[in-house]
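Task 17 of the worksheet. Students: predict the tertiary structure of the chain below and write it out as structure tokens. Keep your answer in the requested format; marks are given for formatting as well as content.
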Amino acid sequence: MLATLVVVCADPARTGPGSPGRPDGAGYTRRVRIAIGGDHAGYPLKQHMIGLLKEWGHDVADLGTDSEEPVDYPIYCAAVARAVAQGDAEMGIVLGGSGQGEQISANKVRGIRAALCNDLYTARMARLHNDANVLSIGARIVATDLADEILRIFLTTTFEGLVPEGSRHVRRLEEIAAIENEESAR
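Model answer:
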């Protein structure tokens, strides 16, 4: 069961454009329910991101792990992906050493578009063109400050398929979903 912690940013001084406590951009117009999880390698970054997401006013569900004790990541990443796929969370974040296995695990859940984003360009394009709904980051690859910026960009970038000139992206996502359906019917 997914437990959601609701936190609202009440300090108006930290919510204006350009303020350190608020990501700017069209994608950040309301609170978002976010599920987050990962393995022991991602644990310190996960704890940091939970604090940051709460500061930004988002609802956060921590789906584990709960320490730096070695664990297998697939169960945590699948839990995050299932929360998103079932509508319990609007977005997900999976964290591990490289982020690769975490992304792969999340993408095994139908309807999930997990993107490994270890740089700013990939974070922007994952949302802009692919409407990614799960962010994967390699905690052993990305420094905390860069991870913060990746997270901000991922959350504030709006899917381009919502405007007429972006319809090619909707078509491509429909093609990906068709592949997913064909493969699951085998």
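Marker's comment: Residues 49 and 148 are 7 Å apart (CA to CA). Residues 1-26 have pLDDT under 50 and may be disordered.
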